UniProtKB/TrEMBL annotation:
Keyword annotations from UniProtKB, A to Z: Ribonucleoprotein, Ribosomal protein, Transferase
NCBIfam families: rimI (TIGR01575)
PROSITE patterns membership: GNAT (PS51186)
Lineage: Bacteria, Bacillati, Bacillota, Bacilli, Lactobacillales
GO molecular function annotation: N-acetyltransferase activity
One BP annotation, GO: mitotic sister chromatid cohesion
A matching Pfam family: Acetyltransf_1
Domain N-acetyltransferase: 27-174
Protein name: Ribosomal protein S18-alanine N-acetyltransferase
Superkingdom: Bacteria
Species of provenance: Vagococcus coleopterorum
InterPro entries: AcTrfase_RimI/Ard1, Acyl_CoA_acyltransferase, GNAT_dom, N-term/lysine_N-AcTrnsfr
Length: 176
């Protein structure tokens, strides 16, 4: 059995595909597969005003890493409206993407997805979660702070194409 199959089984056992209700609306919470990447790229394009920060190759590279990954999305009418991606290695969970459609922002989807990452992080035995956020993205910074993330560093020109700094944030997981 390959590592990917082991990872898929763990995610399915811990986070099975299921309907979830968030603020009175029903979504399908499910694992992201290779066949979903094109739609996730379209969602990025909508949210990031024409830009696609993560290419198909970037998604595939992370999905096929030896380290465990967590790729989950929320869907409405068979279309993704939000997704989160993370990888877990050496006691750290790195959240690489958290994207919510403009039509569904500020409705609790990002909070729900981050709580799922926290839960799976505990399963993988990670001690902390980390992420980077644009200095200009104050709405995301406020959300992360509300959920217990703390700013630990500022990274100069992290978003090099736009010449924008990022804040490095982390969340310390409690042993459960």
């Amino acid at each position: 059995m390959t590592m990917i199959n082991n990872k898929e089984r763990l995610v399915q056992r811990v986070m099975p595909e299921r309907p979830v209700e968030i603020n009175g609306q029903e979504f399908l919470f499910k694992e992201i597969g290779y066949q979903d990447i094109k739609k996730l790229m379209q969602l990025q394009k909508e949210v990031y005003r024409g830009r696609i920060p993560w290419s198909r190759a970037a998604f595939l590279e992370e999905m096929n890493e030896a380290a465990p990954v967590f790729y989950m999305m929320l869907m409405v009418a068979k279309e993704p409206v939000a997704f989160v991606t993370a990888r877990f290695a050496e006691g750290v969970g790195q959240i690489s993407n958290l994207v919510v459609s403009s039509d569904f922002q500020r409705q609790g989807l990002a909070s729900f997805l981050l709580e799922q990452v926290k839960e799976i992080g505990c399963v993988y035995g990670v001690e902390k979660l980390t992420l980077e956020v644009r200095v200009s993205n104050t709405a995301a910074q406020e959300l992360y702070a509300k959920l217990g993330f703390e700013t630990i560093d500022q990274i100069e020109n992290y978003y090099y194409k736009e010449k924008e700094d990022a804040y490095k944030m982390h969340y310390l997981l409690e042993e459960k």
